[in-house]
Amino acid sequence: MSSKRHWWHNAAIYEAYPASFKDSNGDGIGDIPGLISKVEYLANLGVDAVWLAACYRSSGVDMGYDVVDYRDVDPQYGTVEDIEKLIAKLKEHGMKLIMDLVVNHTSDEHAWFKESRSSLKNPKRDWYFWRKGITMRLPDGTVERHPPNNWESIFRGSAWEYDERTDEYYLRIFSKQQPDLNWDNPKVRKAVYSDMRFWLEKGVAGFRMDVINMISKPDGLPDAPVKDSKTPWQNATALCCNGPRVHEFLKEMRKEALDPYGDQVMTVGEVICTDKPADVRAFTDPDRQELNMVYTYDLFGIDMGSGGKFDPRPWTLSEFKHDIIKWQNALAYSKGAWQTTWLESHDSARCVTRFGDKDPKNRTKVAKMLALLQSTFSGTFFLYQGQEIGMINLDPSIPLSEYKDLETHQTWASMRAARAAQHGVSIEDVDMAPFLTQVHLKARDHARAPLPWTASSPSEPHAGFSSAPPKAKTWSPMNTDSATCNITSQLSSPSSVLNYYRHRLSLRKKFGETVIFGDFEAVEGTLGDGGVFAYWRKPLVEEEGKARGKDAVCVRDILVVLNLGNGEGVEFKMPKGMNGGEALKFFVLDDTYGGEGAKGFVGSGENVVLGAFQGVVFGY
Ligand code: TEU
Ligand code: CA
């Protein structure tokens, strides 16, 4: 059942966010030369590829996800030549480069859109979605104009923007500067494939595809069902995601743009609002020839209510565990499927803050426990910059006015207006405190804070990220904790989160047959709301006895036992292992409390006692 293996199956891929990784020229903005200067650091960490988040020439409204020219690099980050140098430097260290592909929409400054908006007759008019508005004559004779349908933008408000020049609206699911491309037009598809080949020719190893399941819109763009009668704009993701031709387009893209570069090119889709395993497999099953893998979003959305990401949603540990079990099982390699494992991205907040507790003394424990958790799951491993040093969310003392993300500000403004209307008060009188708590927990700004390479000091306040003058500001606020959380000091401390990630990534490969490709089996009795979560990882039967890689270690099954909570002295009774009653001895392969030196044996039936956020791996 299991499918042909490729380099990306057991790869660890590091997401670098160009604006915040490393600034080389002191302007306070990270850049490609900065990234090139740290390739050794990434090699040493043990990653196989870098996914560079959007770095194309952009209008700068949505941090590069509003692309003006797919064949150019934004001048604030560098040049196309810099990307070529980056590819070469990564290659020297045995690593590859994955680029972002943002083709559901362009920037409104892209040449295609400028032409499209210029006149009704322009040959590129149909490259985007232009529609007449709905006009209504009111009893007093005035005329009101409304967008063509009731879709809500993911960044709030209507998903349509009125353009005076031709008296029509264009569709833009994200910000008004991000018009959606009309993929039904074959010329659009050809142009996109050609831009993809431009990068593949340069040796890019694949693409992370931004909201790729939104590229096919439903015929007639029908209204979304009304779920919230307080607003005219309704969530339309069910209509805009996984539209009628999405699979056809992806198959065509694979054939025309990707396959000519061989089966080593990898694709990972950002497939949002898709939580059924069968729907995910429709994108990723190898025989369908679409994508290699996608991100799934259950954990990403676990704390988001029906009113959007800043709507609080109380979640339980049991839900957390079941979300994991669901995907680990449904997309197992033995079932011919594949998946990704990730906890952070440039769209999330920091996992230590989201899934840990507030006690600073537990911070390192939480970070290591999450490293152990993620690295014992099947799937291509994605690590987001800063996760490897256990960065946490921005300190609440940093005012909202310093936050840069348009999603944060647009959502803030729209929630404030909605509350004012709801309570019949003026905007200034709305109590936004509960919302601020949610921003502190979930804003994208947290992941986008520049990386602290060293501890900051009065003469070097930008923590080694940038040599900008002390009084200057980095493009987005740095966190306040670089004295205790920075790369240089973690590199030299054997018990640091950073060294734990290095250790985990190497163990993950060593036990890859079990941990990456094997089956997942949760231990019943650990699936409730208690802290303990235990699961087996079992190598595929078909792999047993086969010669394995030269460094591979022959452990049959692995048992992971974690405490996801802050309770101390939490007990777990060791299971009997595969052979029922036999008194098996388990040896400790890894322990988040003990680091690399962890050793010792535990018998079946014995109690293991875990401290707050401790995780242990057993083999036998
Ligand atoms: O994200 C898609 C997406 O749906 C996010 O906007 C997500 O809903 C939001 O971040 C939740 O907080 C991709 C990119 O990763 C993101 O950075 C872009 O803003 C977006 O597409 C538009 O291109
Ligand atoms: Ca710079």
From TrEMBL:
Keyword Transit peptide: no
Gene3D superfamilies listed in its UniProt record: Glycosidases (3.20.20.80), Oligo-1,6-glucosidase, Domain 2 (3.90.400.10)
Cited SMART domains: Aamy
Protein name: Glycoside hydrolase family 13 protein
CDD domains: AmyAc_SI_OligoGlu_DGase
Region named Disordered: 454-477
Species annotation: Zasmidium cellare ATCC 36951
Keywords on record: Glycosidase, Hydrolase, Maltose metabolism
InterPro entries for this protein: GH, GH13_cat_dom, O16G_dom_2
Similarity remark: Belongs to the glycosyl hydrolase 13 family.
Single biological process term from Gene Ontology: sucrose catabolic process
Domain named Glycosyl hydrolase family 13 catalytic: residues: 15-419
GO MF, any single term: oligo-1,6-glucosidase activity
